[in-house]
Amino acid sequence: MNQDISRDPIAFISQADHALSTLWIKELQLAMPEEKILAFSDMSAIEREQCRVAIVANPDPAELSTLPRLEWIHSVWAGVERLMADLGDTKLKIVRLVDPQLATTMAEAVLAWTLYLHRQMPLYKQQQKLRLWKAQEYITPAKKTVSILGLGALGEAAAKCLISAGFKLCGWSRNPKQIKNVQCFSGNDGLKEMLAQTNILICLLPLTPETRYLLDAEKISMLPAGAELINFARGAIIRDLDLRAALDSTHLNHAVLDVFEVEPLPPNEWHWDHPRVTVLPHCSAPTNRNTASAIVAKNIENYRLSGAIPAHVDTRRGY
């Protein structure tokens, strides 16, 4: 074991409430009992001086800046765009959570809400309000094309679930990919071609400078009339007013939105009352503390043994 870095305390830094932070620290400590994990507020001046690695969940950058020897931080979230924006130009290495359980949970949510749209549940909800007894014509999944924006670990796991359910699958990524039973597209021309044949569009992209407002009025108009949309990625990938216009005009039939540019979604926002919108409270794929803690523990163990910081975020690409 590298004795030089083996015993320095690990800070847990989060802007979450005390109860949630305590749960995280308890789970992390169980996963690595040989380590000393402390809430930032509980660390002495000497412990802050010694700290080389911090585990974070939406940390306060000011607290991170008081750890003079800090080399890297391990986020317990998969998405890191908020963290990168908060830290700005930093020399810290940022390690994001890569958890297979997260992909499984997301795939479950993608399947559930795709079926919600496919089986016309929003329409049946409206019919119930009107006390209207009317069965809609059933369409088989094989006649619906579901397209996924983003073919990383989350996208591939979601695609497998949707294929098993019988849907025709398309997928788009920045670079060309090949996935069994998925018609894959890439680049701007590929995106246009895919959108034109999509009945249900699912967004699982990371938020980067290239994906911010990727789905604007022009791109949304490329979808067939009556198409539907699920956003489980980040709110800023869709230009909000363009989305509203497409829903108001009924070019888009319905949107399931789990993410928004401002969260929690303020009570006066238009999404809450729009008849063609389902609002979810960023719940599609919550981090599992148990599996996440085991992954963080393994990464820190490897660091203790080798001194090498785990694979970290490419700040130019944003992930």
Report on this model:
The protein is built from 11 helices and 12 strands. With 319 residues, it is α/β, with parallel strands linked by helices. The protein folds into 2 domains: 110 residues, Rossmann fold; 178 residues, NAD(P)-binding Rossmann-like Domain (Rossmann fold). Strands 8-7-6-9-10-11-12 form a 7-stranded parallel beta sheet, with helices on both faces. The radius of gyration is 22 Å and the shape is elongated. The two termini are 30 Å apart. The N terminus is likely disordered.
Class from helix and strand fractions: alpha/beta
Total of domains? 2
CATH class of the largest domain: Alpha Beta
Radius of gyration: 22 Å
Q: Termini, distance in Å?
A: 30 Å
- Report the count of strand segments: 12
CATH topology of the largest domain: Rossmann fold
The coarse silhouette is: elongated
What is the spatial order of strands in the main beta sheet? Answer: 8-7-6-9-10-11-12
Q: What order do the SSEs take from the amino end to the carboxyl end, as H and E?
A: EHEHEHEHEHHEHEEHEHEHEEH
Enumerate how many helices there are, as a single number: 11
Task: Give the key terms.
alpha/beta, Rossmann fold, 7-stranded parallel β-sheet, 5-stranded parallel β-sheet, 11 helices, elongated, disordered N terminus
How does the SSE layout of this entry go?
Blueprint: E1 10-14, H1 18-31, E2 37-39, H2 45-50, E3 53-57, H3 61-64, E4 72-75, H4 81-87, E5 93-95, H5 100-118, H6 121-129, E6 145-149, H7 153-164, E7 168-173, E8 183-186, H8 187-195, E9 200-203, H9 217-221, E10 227-231, H10 240-248, E11 252-257, E12 277-279, H11 289-306
Parallel strand pairs: 1-2, 1-3, 3-4, 4-5, 6-7, 6-9, 7-8, 9-10, 10-11, 11-12
Helix pairs in contact: 1-11, 5-7
